[in-house]
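We emphasize that the prediction below concerns an isolated chain of 72 residues; any contacts that depend on oligomerization or on bound cofactors are therefore not represented. The input was used exactly as deposited, without trimming of termini.
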Amino acid sequence: MCRSNECGCGHAGHHGPWIAARHGGCCHGPGQLTRRFPTREEILAELEGYLEQLQAEVKGVEERIADYRKAG
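Result of the prediction step, given as a C-alpha cell string:
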C-alpha cells in the first residue's frame, strides 16, 4: 500500500490502504489482492494517524500566523 513516499506512485505517504483503495488502488501490481473490507481496528488506526497529521498541520498554521503577527 501507499505507506511511503518511496513507492513512486505519486500519492502522498499519508494514504493508508483504505484511502488508496477508494482512489482506484495504489502500488498494486498484477496478481496482488486488494482487500475491500478493513477491520474495525485497521480503520481506527488509520483515522488516528490521520488525526495526528491534522493536528500537526494546525500547529504549523498557528506558528506561521504567530510569525506574521510578530513581523507586522
